[in-house]
Design a protein that fits this description.
By secondary structure, the protein is of the alpha+beta class. The chain is built from 2 helices and 8 strands.
Amino acid sequence: MADPEKLFRVDIVTPDGLIYSHRSSIIDMRAIDGQRSIMYGHTPLLTSLAIGDVKVRRSREMSRKVDHIAVNGGYIEFSNNTATIIADSAERARNIDVSRAEAAKERAEKLMKEAHEKHDQRSLERAQIALKRAVNRISVYNTKK
């Protein structure tokens, strides 16, 4: 008889509360030092996350069922077979307002151009981060198609 699939809990929390909670066989995310994957029994971990797509595979048997969550930085802590992501903001692909994300992208591009013309490094850096967040949201939204 085959061993039952080992799943662990994944919770994603923002200042607005718990936005995601499911059991998973594997999660993939971008940490600030590179791509990471976590499976059941992984060594305890605490690391910073980059702006990116967190992919949660619900079960190996349901290998096609992958939830995509746009995370704008934060931290992941994994211990006792529970992954907790704490982020300033996070959105599931199905909840992203893509027209709002596209408008944010256009605003960020305009602000980058203005900051570059004024040689305002601080404003340029803020606009670049806003652009990364908008592009990430659009990209994650497009995974649901």
